[in-house]
Design a protein that fits this description.
The complex is a heterodimer. Chain A is built from nine helices and ten strands. By secondary structure, chain A is an alpha/beta fold. Chain A has two domains: 165 residues, 3-Layer(aba) Sandwich (Rossmann fold); 77 residues, no CATH class. Chain B has a domain of 215 residues. Chain B is globular and about 60 Å long. Classes of the chains: A alpha/beta, B mainly alpha. Chains A and B meet through α2, α3, α4 and α5 of A and α1, α10, α11 and α12 of B.
Chain lengths: 250, 332
């Protein structure tokens, strides 16, 4: 398994009789852009929840690099570089964008528990947060409360929060969900511009975007991985066509 | 920084501006000295207000900033009060020693219970904090050998500040002492909320689910602030004992826990000065209303509470802040 940034071995999860993940085996090499696609209810978000520790698997292992992180707490996984964003905005409504990203930077730098010196005393953390916001073109609005930001900006802030943790592996759950189609390409251009050291796996329904930005694609159906391959292989795969033409996916 | 960036857009200058002392704050603290001149006959009340303000400030740290609801915060106030009282009964009547001991005992109890507190939120948390409050009240009630039970603690002595300054009948010393303690603790709390840790607390309040996803150990943060808050509540309790030379089970009462929530919400939670303003309004209103109708004064407190929550959902300070930004022509 050496060389894999993230891998899973035989992940299983069921809610009662509903199987949401069944024998998931993944090996994701470092630096590759992966897309995770599949019809609604295929278990894509569940898989991200399992990998990031928000759900506990019934069986199986999760490895980050060579380290088994199956029993590691979610916040400790983030500290090790395994980071996610959320399909539905999970932000801090009454913090402004700068405060929110500074908070994440402070956590990563290990100063978030310091209570004696004021925030400006940690100028490097603030500057770093500001630089992240600027790289995502959020700097002009960074003093506005999160809840006052436009929806597209909030989606960018989701990514900014993740970047502030300096991820090695970044899992993006429908980063463009709810963003108008003409804006989502811009959002993915920002994602494509991320450092090549970061391994990215994103869930997305828009096939144009998937084929433009992913080097490899994983197709999930009914809690299982149906097939994994290059965009060309996936486009030519008869089983994938059947799922998408026969199913209700967009 | 690029050449085009202005002071208003420099993030560090922006944050510095937020932590700077504002004229209104200086005016507020200057005004706390007015009772010495204007109301020399009401200094006992003023000292009670300062103690209540300190207690409300401790609750603001957990409720206002971290979003941890508690209906049992009197437990820590009471622990501080009894600790200072019992110490002075056995001859250790130095007020500063009592303060430190009260803070330590309450802080330890806060730390011990924080492991439970950090696991829950919302309604379960209200039940748990209330339950812990009842447990402590009944424990104090039954431990008559230590606390005097329902008769109250007998033999509490008034110490002398620095071994020289006595507490007088008119409350000069009491108010000066309570005010200084309040101000010193306030300075520390003000630093705390402007620090990275203060930002983390607001993060927990705003979205506790997201916190682990940015690598934040929320529970460790909650344990820490709960301990600090409990210690401050203990200090408030100790000051009450030292300025009144009495301790009764009332310091642990559920009503005290409920009232301090009312006071904080009245003034405006999560606004640093909310508990202070709330304490002034509540205690002065109680003083006035109980003069009008001693039996029914809670009727008016009820009316005040309903009116404030309906008209000013963010408390009196929230309403004032909104008014202020409207005056400045800020869009909302």
């Amino acid at each position: 398994m050496s060389g894999a940034a993230l891998s899973t071995q035989g992940l299983d999860k069921r809610f009662g009789s509903l199987v949401v993940a069944s024998d998931i085996n993944l090996t994701i090499p470092q630096g590759v852009r992966y897309a995770l696609i599949g019809p609604n209810g295929a278990g894509k978000t569940t898989l991200i929840n399992l990998i990031t520790g928000m759900l506990r698997p019934d069986a199986g292992k999760i490895l980050l690099g060579d380290a088994d992180i199956t029993a590691v707490r979610p916040d400790a996984r983030v500290k090790r570089g395994l980071v996610r964003t959320f399909q539905i905005n999970a932000l801090f409504p009454h913090l402004n964008a700068l405060e929110a990203v500074t908070l994440a930077v402070c956590e990563r730098r290990g100063v978030a528990g310091q209570w004696w010196k004021p925030l400006p005393a940690y100028g490097e953390a603030v500057d770093e947060a500001y630089a992240i916001l600027r790289s995502l073109l959020l700097d002009a609005d960074c003093y506005r409360l999160t809840r006052e930001l436009a929806y597209g900006q909030q989606r960018l802030l989701e990514i900014a929060l993740a970047l502030a943790t300096r991820p090695k592996v970044l899992l993006l759950d429908e980063p463009a969900a709810g963003v108008p189609r003409e804006e989502s390409a811009g959002l993915f251009t920002a994602i494509a511009g991320l450092s090549k050291d970061i391994t990215v796996l994103f869930i997305e329904h828009d096939m144009d975007i998937v084929f433009r930005f992913a080097r490899r694609i994983i197709v999930m159906v009914g809690g299982r991985i149906l097939v994994e391959g290059t965009p060309q292989e996936i486009a030519a795969d008869a089983r994938v066509r059947e799922v998408y033409l026969g199913g209700d996916a967009p | 920084m690029t050449a085009t960036s202005t002071a208003a857009f420099d993030p560090n200058l922006h944050l510095q501006a937020q932590t700077r002392w504002r004229p209104i704050e200086v005016a507020f603290w200057a005004a706390t000295l007015l009772p010495f001149v204007l109301f020399p006959n009401h200094l006992v009340l003023a000292s009670q207000i300062a103690i209540t303000a300190l207690f409300a400030l401790s609750l603001d740290l957990i409720l206002g900033y971290a979003g941890i609801v508690s209906l049992g915060h009197a437990a820590f106030f009471g622990l501080g009060a009894y600790t200072a009282g019992i110490l002075s009964k056995y001859g250790f009547s130095d007020p500063l020693l009592g303060l430190l001991a009260g803070a330590a005992v309450a802080g330890l109890a806060g730390y011990a219970t924080s492991f439970i507190i950090a696991r829950f939120r919302h309604l379960p948390l209200i039940m748990i904090t209330m339950g812990l409050g009842f447990l402590l009240l009944e424990a104090a009630n039954s431990a008559e050998w230590l606390t005097g039970g329902s008769d109250g603690l007998q033999g509490v002595r008034k110490g002398r500040l620095f071994g020289t300054i006595a507490f007088d009948l008119y409350g000069y010393t009491a108010y000066a002492y309570a005010l200084i303690v309040l101000f010193v603790v306030f300075l520390a709390v003000r630093r705390l909320i402007n620090s990275p840790f203060g930002l983390s607390l607001r993060g927990i309040r705003e979205n506790s689910v997201r916190m682990p996803a940015i690598g934040a150990p929320s529970r460790a943060h909650i344990r820490k602030i709960y301990t600090i808050s409990a210690a401050i509540a203990g200090i408030a309790g100790a000051v009450l004992t030292q300025t009144t030379a009495t301790v009764s089970l009332g310091v642990l009462d559920f009503q005290r826990s409920a009232e301090i929530v009312i006071i904080l919400v009245l003034g405006g939670a999560g606004r640093l000065y909310g508990g202070l303003v709330g304490a002034i309004i509540f205690m002065v209103a109680r003083d006035q209303f109980s003069g009008i109708a001693p039996q029914y004064w809670y009727f008016w407190i009820g009316a005040l509470l309903v009116a404030v929550v309906m008209l000013l959902p963010n408390g009196v300070l929230g309403g004032l802040a909104k008014l202020g930004s409207r005056w400045r022509g800020g869009s909302s």
